[in-house]
Amino acid sequence: MWQMMDSLAKIEKFYDMFDYLLLCMDMEIAKRDCLIQFIQLMIDNGPVSRLLQKKIKENDAGIRKPEDVLEQVLQAGIRQGEIKARMPMFYMNMVVMSKILVYAIYLTSGEKEGKPDGQQMHRLLYEGLLKELG
C-alpha cells in the first residue's frame, strides 16, 4: 500500500488517481483471484477481520489499509473541488469501495457482448462517483 500511496502522491488530477487505482486492479486481478476477498477481509467488521486488523496494527503500524489509499484519493478530489466534503470520510470511502468492487466484478465477469472496454468502464465509474459525491 505504501508504494501505491507514493505513486498516487505524484499524480495531480483526481480522475488520474481514480484511474490509477483501477489500473492497479487490472494488474492484481490478472495475478490472483483473491483480491475481492482480501478487500472484504480488510474492511469487514467480523471477528476474523477484526483479529487480522488488530495483528496488523500490533506488528507494523506502518502498514496502510485500503481505506488509507482511498482517503488519499478522496482528499485530492476535495482539494480540486470535484468532491464536496459534506459527507463523513467513512461514507465517502465506502462509495469509492463500492465502485472498486463493481469494477472487480466487471473484470471477472468474462467476455460479454456489449460490454464496455476497460477505459470506458473507468470513465463510467468515475462519472458515477462524481454524481454521488460531487
Describe the structure concisely for a colleague.
The chain is an all-alpha fold. It is built from seven helices and no strands.
Write the topology of this structure.
Blueprint: H1 2-9, H2 14-31, H3 35-43, H4 47-59, H5 66-79, H6 89-108, H7 118-133
3D architecture notes:
This protein has 134 residues and is an all-alpha fold. Helices cover 73% and strands 0% of the residues. The radius of gyration is 15 Å and the shape is globular.
Question: How many beta-strand elements?
Answer: 0
The major sheet is characterized as: none
User: What are the segments in which pLDDT stays under 50 over at least 5 consecutive residues?
Assistant: none
Give the N-to-C terminal Cα separation: 26 Å
Oligomeric organization of the protein chains = single chain
Q: Find the structural class using helix and strand composition.
A: mainly alpha
Mean pLDDT: 81
Which terms summarize this structure?
about 130 residues; mainly alpha; 7 helices; globular
